[in-house]
Recover the amino acids of this structure.
């Protein structure tokens, strides 16, 4: 970025590791990609139909800033029903343009210049840049395969300073597939309270949990008032392109975030909002079916990588595996570039997800069993060359 | 029950999956998978492990037709006797009782259109109880058993996303 008019903060944000790899992949032909971070399912038909119907009836206006009350009621019902969370539809829930906007809003409503925000790594690529855009300071909390990639009390404590304001809690995790169970959350809860931290709990993959039910940290005693729950429709209902997310938090947080949202975004698209209501009330079966399909693929791909000879942590959530490639002696970037060039398979280098990600690759299983089996054959052929 | 359904659905999708692959995918042991499949075969739930072939891409000349058949149901037997009677012919690939203007839908396979026409005229139509037949030749298949014969919809997702 040579343009002298661009602000320092934007200039200083490093280019995305995924972007670099994306350019490489786009220039290749006939590849099998296991690099995608979105469902391979199409949004359930009832939901698509609803959007078409409301458009037909002329739903083309703004909605209230917080979103349609009917949708907030649906979200309130969903959160209660699925995670035993109690949020008032009128005061404690707002609809956003995807969970991505929700991340931005949560950070912007909390961060003063120089405030530190704890970010477990490896994790989703947006947190650090969004923190930097708010003039906050991202502080990485490394998580380790030996700990199942969860945040342990010691990891957390070691990174807290007097400037620490908030903790991002991205579980089920992209890219590791790790989840934090109730006892894991309970183990860090007291530290969070003791240091008066706010938790930004990004639960976008909550419906894709394969070992018991997802537990939100906001459901633990004394945690609701210091947690901002972020979630959305993209992963649970296969609605990525609709850009529909939501935030659940105490009224004062919602009020603050809505202040930003009303000036920057106004509201999420109205047709997506109507479709979201339909999704919540009529698509439980679809969620269940998709989860089951992901679970089958998960077992297949984990087993496949292990049989080839990679160490592979067993993910309990999301739709990624995060196998170790350390025994190849290659860096993640080298491994992925060679796999792409030699076998035409695209996966994402682990270091794109922050420090600690090198030595791993992220492999998505949002693909058919057939495609996964074909990809595994090629990966095996590649592994035989480099092991 | 649900694991049983899982196996049925997996095999319905790909009958070449090995017991080992099914065991990995479902999380059952290989022995359990074998046992369930054996039972399903004995109960005649699983009837045959077949393949969906796009004959157009082979040297074999194949013509298929769907024939709407109107029949007189028989006393005490309904449509069953005549449906089974029609099903006796090797040329007949499927026979189904359908609702609407006709009673039976019969799918017939032959080498040429003429062969099928002769089959209908000489074998099917003269059967006692058959009132009328209407033959529709299949000209092109787009999708069968959930599989596209044409290229079908493509994966529109970007190849790499965070």
């Amino acid at each position: 970025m040579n343009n002298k008019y661009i602000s320092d903060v934007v200039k200083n944000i490093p280019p995305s590791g995924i972007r670099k790899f994306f350019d490489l992949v786009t220039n290749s032909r006939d590849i099998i990609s296991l690099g995608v971070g979105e469902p391979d399912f199409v949004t359930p038909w009832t939901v698509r139909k609803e959007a078409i119907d409301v458009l037909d009836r002329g739903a083309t206006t703004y909605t209230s800033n917080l979103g349609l009350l009917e949708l907030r009621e649906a979200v309130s019902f969903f959160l209660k029903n699925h995670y035993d969370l109690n949020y008032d539809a009128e005061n404690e829930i707002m609809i956003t343009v995807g969970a991505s906007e929700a991340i931005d809003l949560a950070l912007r409503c909390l961060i003063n210049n120089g405030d530190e925000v704890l970010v477990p790594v490896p994790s989703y690529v947006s947190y650090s840049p969004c923190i930097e855009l708010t003039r906050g300071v991202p502080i990485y909390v490394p998580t380790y395969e030996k700990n199942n990639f969860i945040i342990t009390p010691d990891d957390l404590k070691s990174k807290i300073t007097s400037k620490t304001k908030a903790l991002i809690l991205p579980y089920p995790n992209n890219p590791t597939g790790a989840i934090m169970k109730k006892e894991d959350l309970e183990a860090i809860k007291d530290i969070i309270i003791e240091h008066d931290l706010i938790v930004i709990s990004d639960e976008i993959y909550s419906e894709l949990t394969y070992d018991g039910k997802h537990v939100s940290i906001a459901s633990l005693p004394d945690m609701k008032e210091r947690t901002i729950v972020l979630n959305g429709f993209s992963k649970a209902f296969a609605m990525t392109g609709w850009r529909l997310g939501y935030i659940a938090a105490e009224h004062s947080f919602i009020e603050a975030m809505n202040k930003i949202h009303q000036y920057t975004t106004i509201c999420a698209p109205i047709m997506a909002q109507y479709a979201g209501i339909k999704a919540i009330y009529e698509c439980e079966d679809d969620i269940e079916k998709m989860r089951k399909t992901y679970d089958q693929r998960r077992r297949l791909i984990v087993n496949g990588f292990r049989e080839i000879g990679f160490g592979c942590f067993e993910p309990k959530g999301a739709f990624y595996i995060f196998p170790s490639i350390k025994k190849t002696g290659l860096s993640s970037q080298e491994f992925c570039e060679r796999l792409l060039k030699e076998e035409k398979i695209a996966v994402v280098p682990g270091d794109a997800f922050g420090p600690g990600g090198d030595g791993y690759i992220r492999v998505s299983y949002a693909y058919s069993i057939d495609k996964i089996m074909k990809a595994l054959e090629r990966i095996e052929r590649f592994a035989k060359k480099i092991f | 029950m649900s694991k049983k359904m899982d196996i049925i659905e997996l095999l319905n999708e790909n009958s070449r999956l090995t017991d080992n692959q099914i065991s990995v995918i479902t999380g059952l042991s290989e022995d359990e998978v074998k046992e369930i499949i054996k039972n399903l075969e004995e109960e005649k739930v699983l009837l045959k492990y077949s393949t969906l072939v796009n004959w157009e891409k082979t040297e074999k000349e194949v013509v298929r037709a769907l024939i709407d058949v109107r029949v007189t149901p028989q006393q005490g037997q309904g449509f069953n006797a005549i449906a089974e009677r029609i099903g006796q012919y090797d040329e007949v690939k499927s026979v189904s009782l359908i609702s609407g203007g006709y009673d039976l839908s019969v799918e017939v396979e032959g080498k040429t259109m003429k062969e099928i026409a002769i089959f209908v005229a000489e074998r099917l139509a003269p059967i006692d109880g058959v009132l009328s037949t209407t033959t529709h030749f299949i000209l092109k298949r787009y999708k069968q058993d959930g599989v596209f014969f044409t290229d079908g919809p493509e994966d529109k997702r970007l190849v790499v996303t965070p």
